[in-house]
Amino acid sequence: MIFGLLFIIFNFAFIISPYWLLPELPIGKFTVLVVTIISGIIWANYSTGRLQLQYSIKSFAGLVILLSVIFAINLGPLSSSIPWRGDEDFHIANVLALINDLQPYVSIFVLAGFVVFLYLLAKNKGLAFIWYSLIMLVIFWALAVIRILPLGNPVFFPRYPYFTYWITAILLKIPSIIFTPFHEEFYRLVPLLFTGIIIWLFIRVSFKEISVPSFLAGIGVTTIPLVFYYSSIFYLELPAVCLMFVVCLRIDHLLHSDFNEIRNDPAWYALLLLGFIKETTLPFLIVFVIFRFAILFLKLKKSGQNNFDEKQQPEPNPLKRIYAVLGQEVIISLLVLFPAVLYLIFRSSLAEISRGYIPAGNNLLHLSTYKVIIRSLLEQFGPFLVIFLAGCILLIRQKDYIKVCFFLSSIVIFLIFFTADDWKFIGYSRFNLLILPEILACSIAVFHRLKDQKILGPVLSILILAVNLWISPVNSDGTKKPFWGNYNYDTSEHYYPYEETLQWIKDSDIHGSILFTGLYYPYYFEFYFHKLNWFPVYKVIESEENRNEKRDILKMLTIGKEENYTFVIYHILGKDIPTIEKDTGYEHMQEICNMAHCLLVFY
């Protein structure tokens, strides 16, 4: 019944996102398009099962209240300037390009169609659903043709999967017409929403109801340093983390169900969607596939070839049954891995991507590597690392061996996978997000055990909250602490007060020209010029990363004066502001700082 939705998702990911336009020759484009469409139809058809949603107004109200609390906690980080470095500016720019391409009626159609889809699915109106799916597919393809054909040379850079960009653009198209799309908060609400869903699921599974103790536990999860840091940055990881968490909550059923049963589980569709969201979830998917096969072989060994299925009488030809079950297992594996593998094929064979994965096994041979990993886990997960270990012990005592083995295996595989990457990224916080679902899923056992403890449970949550706030990477003004979550190399986000600085210059001299300097990496200035509806003459001169800042400032001020720039904005890298002589050609110097960094404005 959900073939239509799966095929539409596939189309957004691989057809409307025009990977098939990357080959140079027309015959290559046509071939890739046809093969992609056919493979998408086959994938969606085999992935489809029977699914009926259940919901309650009370449960939905609890989610809304929880999201409101999480929003209030993250109010400062949501409105902070786009960081210098990191990839948030890249992701925002991609969504902005799609928003500019989208017509409002497309966004309205897709959103309205999705609401109708959920209604029909919840009411289990099969025949109406089938007709609706057919109509949706016809209209969708018409819109797809309208969207793609005029794009002779689309602005398209397949460094990351585009599916999340499309969903974000569709959601933001209507608000962007009313408020303009140049508000950081719009984009950051996406990871915040998925953070809220993760915490809501954590509460529902741990406590079975929304209450004061459950809310305290939820706030404890919200303020986990890793969660607090990334819940207000527009990256692709948190939607993937949310889907992984859904899978972890249903991992027993997903690992033991046969091909027909597994497709009726909502978590099955979360598993399928992972490959569309983030290609780095592939290790998680591979662990899932390995465990499925391991469990199958254990069943074969235990039950014997002549009595594989205990519910049925021994078959005259047991090998035929075994081959059929193995065939179904292969199909499940292909369905789960296909979206991520297809994206990686497109990315590696049709696109020129400078940042690839090249394993460096020697990273695993150094003791310093493991010191960094342990430090990163302690700093980024805080008290929840202890809760996780306690949860593992409880699961073992409950004889949930397969579940705890799956969680531990997934964590270890991810740590090895990223440790064997470039040495710069060992312990990197953004990569450690992908072990958050397993840690939370294991921690549920502890909170579920304490849910009836009226004193011990809330006290534990309050202690967790206190420690989380003590080691928090978020400053009180909403900026993030520089270099947090980086151990071997600076690849983190740096929050500079560029919006405040540009607003101050606009108020001071709206016609003034600007020289930006002191940066050694580009910054998304155009976003704030559009946000302020102000387009001054400006120039960017990058400086060396390793430089004497005092000498570099004097050099750039000389250039600024020679080229008659009204303002020179200097990007200070370090914590200390050098003393500058008065005779620089500029009469005044203004320091504009937040709790993370400072900018110097000469005028």
From TrEMBL:
<feature type="transmembrane region" description="Helical">
    <location>
        <begin position="102"/>
        <end position="122"/>
    </location>
</feature>
<feature type="transmembrane region" description="Helical">
    <location>
        <begin position="321"/>
        <end position="346"/>
    </location>
</feature>
<keyword id="KW-0812">Transmembrane</keyword>
<protein>
    <recommendedName>
        <fullName>Glycosyltransferase RgtA/B/C/D-like domain-containing protein</fullName>
    </recommendedName>
</protein>
<feature type="transmembrane region" description="Helical">
    <location>
        <begin position="431"/>
        <end position="448"/>
    </location>
</feature>
<feature type="transmembrane region" description="Helical">
    <location>
        <begin position="238"/>
        <end position="255"/>
    </location>
</feature>
<feature type="transmembrane region" description="Helical">
    <location>
        <begin position="5"/>
        <end position="21"/>
    </location>
</feature>
<feature type="transmembrane region" description="Helical">
    <location>
        <begin position="401"/>
        <end position="419"/>
    </location>
</feature>
<keyword id="KW-1133">Transmembrane helix</keyword>
<feature type="transmembrane region" description="Helical">
    <location>
        <begin position="27"/>
        <end position="48"/>
    </location>
</feature>
<feature type="transmembrane region" description="Helical">
    <location>
        <begin position="267"/>
        <end position="300"/>
    </location>
</feature>
<keyword id="KW-0472">Membrane</keyword>
<feature type="transmembrane region" description="Helical">
    <location>
        <begin position="60"/>
        <end position="82"/>
    </location>
</feature>
<feature type="transmembrane region" description="Helical">
    <location>
        <begin position="455"/>
        <end position="471"/>
    </location>
</feature>
<feature type="transmembrane region" description="Helical">
    <location>
        <begin position="189"/>
        <end position="207"/>
    </location>
</feature>
<feature type="transmembrane region" description="Helical">
    <location>
        <begin position="162"/>
        <end position="182"/>
    </location>
</feature>
<feature type="transmembrane region" description="Helical">
    <location>
        <begin position="129"/>
        <end position="150"/>
    </location>
</feature>
